[in-house]
Amino acid sequence: MMSFRNISMYYFVCVAVHGITLADAATFSIQNNCPYTVWAAAAPGGGRQLDHGQVWDLNVSSGVGGARIWARTGCEFNESGQGKCQTGDCGGLLQCQGYGLPPNTLAEYTLNQFDGMDFFDISLVDGFNVPMEFSPTSGGCNRGIKCTSP
Ligand SMILES: *[C@@H]1O[C@H](CO)[C@@H](O)[C@H](O)[C@H]1NC(C)=O
Ligand SMILES: *[C@@H]1O[C@H](CO)[C@@H](O)[C@H](O)[C@H]1NC(C)=O
């Protein structure tokens, strides 16, 4: 394994998630700025391979508590989307059905809560695997958060 921490000094933010919320739904734009391939994962949402610079636009419908987006590293999948990842693996599936295994940096969100507000954070409760940024791009809040090291 390479040392991600050394790389992250040069690539300040590795995986960027930008969220646009609508009335009861949201669109997340997940971009891989890492110099290596990651396999983005979302619960709800599934998963997708993202090479350097690639973007996954993900639509989710509202409201789920405990929704999260994370990145997986060192994955290998066969044609049926089954395999394994070194970090963040979700039961060996390319299209995640549930959460990933620690360590993984988590972008968490809950939509349309009290007073119609959305909540988001980056959590290290499951450890750290890649530097992440999570920022809203609508709703009068444009202050994003970053987590670049544990
Ligand atoms: C996501 O939602 C936006 C806005 O409603 C829509 O324009 C876009 O086509 C949707 N994308 C997918 C992949 O469903
Ligand atoms: C993919 O891997 C799974 C789990 O090892 C296996 O059951 C399945 O048959 C494989 N599919 C292909 C197309 O190789």
UniProtKB/TrEMBL annotation:
Keywords: Signal. It comes from Gossypium arboreum. The keyword Cell membrane does not apply. The keyword Signal applies. InterPro entries: Osmotin/thaumatin-like_sf (IPR037176), Thaumatin (IPR001938), Thaumatin_CS (IPR017949). Residues 1-25 form the signal peptide. This is Thaumatin-like protein. Coiled coil: none annotated. Pfam families: Thaumatin. It comes from the Eukaryota.
